[in-house]
Amino acid sequence: MRSYRAFLDRAIRSPEAFWAEEAKLIEWQRPFSRVLDYSRPPFARWFVDGTTNLCHNAIDRHLAARAEQPALIYVSTEIDVEQTFTFRQLHQEVNRFAACLKGLGVVRGDRVLIYMPMVPEAVFAMLACARIGAIHSVVFGGFASLSLASRIDDAQPKLIVSADAGSRAGRIVPYKALLDEAIERSKAPPGSVLLVDRGLAPMRRLAGRDHDYAELRSRHLDAAVPCEWLEASEPSYILYTSGTTGQPKGVQRDTGGHAVALASSMGKIFCCNAGETYFATSDIGWVVGHSYIVYGPLLAGMATVLYEGTPVRPDGAILWRIVERHRVSVMFSAPTAIRVLKKQDPALLKRHDLSSLRLLFLAGEPLDEPTARWISEGLGKPVVDNYWQTETGWPILAIARGVEAIPAKFGSPGLPCYGYSVKLYDEHTGQEVGPNTKGVLAIEGPLPPGCMTTVWGDDERFVKTYWHSVPGRTVYSTFDWGIRDDDGYYFILGRTDDVINVAGHRLGTREIEESICSHPGIAEVAVVGVADQLKGQVAVAFAVVRDARAVELPQQRKNLEAEVMKQVDSQLGAVARPARVHFVTALPKTRSGKLLRRSVQAICEGRDPGDLTTIEDPTALEQIRSALVSA
Ligand code: AMP
Description:
Blueprint: H1 2-13, H2 15-22, E1 34-40, E2 43-48, E3 51-52, H3 54-58, H4 63-66, E4 70-76, E5 81-86, H5 87-103, E6 111-115, H6 120-132, E7 135-138, H7 145-155, E8 159-163, E9 165-168, E10 171-174, H8 176-185, E11 192-196, E12 210-212, H9 213-218, E13 230-231, E14 237-241, E15 249-253, H10 256-268, E16 277-280, H11 287-299, E17 303-308, H12 318-326, E18 328-333, H13 335-342, E19 359-362, H14 369-379, E20 383-385, E21 421-425, E22 439-444, E23 454-455, H15 459-467, E24 476-484, E25 490-495, E26 499-502, E27 505-508, H16 509-517, E28 522-532, E29 536-545, H17 554-571, E30 580-584, H18 597-604, H19 618-630
Adenosine monophosphate binds near residues 363 and 390.
């Protein structure tokens, strides 16, 4: 333990020496002249002047040693397909894709929006962008047209890559129709759309704008597209995430720092070796998909599993069947997926040969002790909780078992990862709090390599939102509550802002509120996150109707609730649909008009609503209570 702490100290005290060493894990075309430029805090520039390319490091550099080894293993239980691409084949496909992008006029620095189901072409598209220096922005396929339109407007992509449809739990999920709707709503429509036709749903093609990928690909079968060498701080991608406002933030990631941090984490945190297989059950639309389906494993010379399907189809053993079949060494999933499996026959955990599997990593939401114990004992494998966010791109808190397997504690993701100077502050005074006291979890600058470098197109928002929210300090706020015990282990106690976490998916309550409010019958609404046994949290809405007569009868309330849910589905996507919509005539607010969100949430969870001295109309809280009782 002492040597582990000394290692963490070294990374904080001598970041330049530490990260210069880690930077050797990737190949540079031109070496960097400085490890860190922090002359303009909080903007950190890592590996200044160094030039590199993510695609080169993920694919080309492995060709010499492992061209015929698997790189991408596509498993779809939705369309019953399994397909393995070796590094050589992946290289070829990415070159073809890159040639198509170039043929459609995409150049270095252009944005390419990727709105795709979990198919190999989505990975080709990401890597092809990296290859030619285009900035990809993957939008989760579960988002609907309004969410998509706001991301198109912000990223202003030159081109969008999409498909006819996806499939979820055996049901076809249309993509193209939603994309058309989004483009119609958008103020910055793309010049071209490149479409993968899976033959799942009919597609309307717009002449001149929409291109067929298979057709274009066939013209570039022998393509050899050279890598663009990017300066380390040039952006590699934008990934939108929710915050307090209704407007999603474009988390911008650099190139060099991103490559180094991920390559480093693969060994030091995930204990992986080249030639092995990694299986992350996430989606490429989320940060875990970016870091640990696509870039991390490939940078490490591993095969990565791309899984299109759910954990319970065709049965609750499917994940373990994949582990057995592809000799998976390390797995990454979310607590919700494990809680779903907990409802299945525990014998399913024992049906397959899991001897290749060493570790199961879980992240994205709090990992409760019963779930951790159940899966760890059921599989007979260590489970590693790790805490991070879209913004950081790799774990903030975890036990870096590749450094030393120090003991874990249930309920805690562990200690800060190397390079993160984690602190806890009092939310009102900004004073650092000691052990066993709840505080806002923050990180002192500079953020280590791999973390967000700014908000896309909005440096001011980056500084104001993330660095000025702890009173009197310029520190990066995670917007999570945390507590540290006497041994220095951290525990996460939920968000300090209005972001909720449903089944590991991060959602902004503000976005959901805006969508509900656009219903003509609704005057005002409050959406809160409420604890849920399976999903961690669910969204619950309390809506004030314009005309109370519209919800007098139970059947009317039921109909309006269904209508509101449908509206959220069509605008934001089913992922954002509230579990319930209750109707009230007033919302509990302070006399200055601020919604008492935490009190509403407390009542929903059967807790004490806290200090209500500032409430304007106490009957509004009573309405929340009775709405819940009568529901
Ligand atoms: P996202 O940006 O979607 O990855 O969501 C990040 C948020 O998920 C964090 O700010 C936390 O609120 C939550 N989170 C992620 N990992 C964990 C974890 N291991 N334990 C508790 N909360 C987590």
